[in-house]
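Readers of this paper often ask what the protein records in our data store actually look like. Such a record has a labelled line for the sequence and another for the backbone structure tokens. Nothing more is needed to write down the fold, since each code stands for a local backbone conformation. The record that follows is passed on verbatim for readers who wish to inspect the format.
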Amino acid sequence: MTSRAKKPTTRKEPVRPHALGPLLAERTLTVAGHDDSFVHVRVGKPRKDSATGDYFCPFSIKGLHPQRVHEAWGMDSMQALQNALQAIRIELAPHADSLRWEGGQEGWLGFPKVIPDIFGPAFTQHLVKVVDREVDRFARSLEEASRRAEPSGRGKTRSSKPQVVTPRRKTKLRD
């Protein structure tokens, strides 16, 4: 059985434009070096298209380009919402170095890449295992580095300067 719409899609030119409608979520980003300049990301509530039976999730990004409402489509409202968040990530990616999110680190805008599921569950589970393994490996290396940086001997510190903990990087990747 084949699926109607597994691939994330964003229609650049909708047949009939929809309004943003009820607001589901929003995020304000600051332009680096310009504390009074902002980029506003808004996501509307996903809605069902009566003509197709599919769902669309409207979103807008104001402050980078002329504001307009974009639509991400999916088979249900959840897929439409997920596709909208990925479309936002793709739109913002070229500007990540010049934008700041109050809740994030430099260069991180809080719209993560998701693991693609277009190639079926077996391949998706393989990717999940690879990501989980790398996260575990990185966490273990941080723990090791933290232990190495701990002061030795009866509470005395080796240096009065704060130490920067950098994990060792292993280059070989095994399945």
Remarks:
- Helices lie at 77-92, 121-149.
